[in-house]
Design brief:
Blueprint lengths: L17 H27 E2 L3 H28 L8 H7 L10 E2 H29 L1 H22 L6
Parallel strand pairs: 1-2
InterPro entries: DPS_DNA-bd, DPS_DNA-bd_CS, Ferritin-like, Ferritin-like_SF, Ferritin_DPS_dom
Family: Belongs to the Dps family.
GO molecular function, one term: ferric iron binding
């Protein structure tokens, strides 16, 4: 058995580069905004299939909230500093603004599905750069894409006609 012990001075944790930190911050603010917009839709949706969509929006809100926590905690594990303050979210999000009025179930489905896909687009945009520096973090992004695209499919199916 041939092993070489490391010296204490050779043992270091992995630290995110400024680019990795910035990419994860982009994902974080979109997830926080998705959570907030999902809740806004949840409170103000009206119309046919209200209850079903109301409950689906809660599922989306919970997913986005948990995902933002996962990303922020991953940032901390890599010695990056997440910024989830409202000013940072407003300044950094790519999601379109959500209306400040009641929305029909059909409109809410389209609006929220668009916000989910905007969030996924951000994750996809940073993925390759994240993967090049830290494949473990890229695995987290894969799970987020899978989960968000599944939620988009489930929600947009409310408006699908065959």
């Amino acid at each position: 058995m041939n092993t070489t012990r490391r010296l204490e001075t050779e043992v270091q944790g992995f630290h995110a580069s400024p680019e990795l930190s910035a990419n994860l911050q982009r994902v974080l603010v979109d997830l926080i905004e998705l959570h907030l917009q999902g809740k806004q839709a949840h409170w103000n949706v009206v119309g046919t299939n209200f209850r079903d969509l109301h409950l689906q929006l809660d599922e989306l809100v919970e997913f986005a909230r948990e995902a933002s926590d996962t990303v922020a905690e991953r940032m901390r594990a890599l010695d990056a500093v997440p910024d989830g303050r409202s000013d940072a979210v407003t300044a950094g999000t790519t999601l379109p603004q959500f209306p400040a009025y009641e929305v029909s179930t059909q409109e809410a489905v389209d609006l929220i599905t668009g916000r989910i896909y905007a969030t996924v687009a951000t994750i996809r945009a940073v993925h390759d750069s994240v993967d090049a520096e830290d494949p473990s973090t890229a695995d987290i992004l894969h799970q987020l894409i899978d989960g968000l695209e599944k939620l988009a499919w489930l929600i947009k199916s409310e408006n699908r006609k065959v």
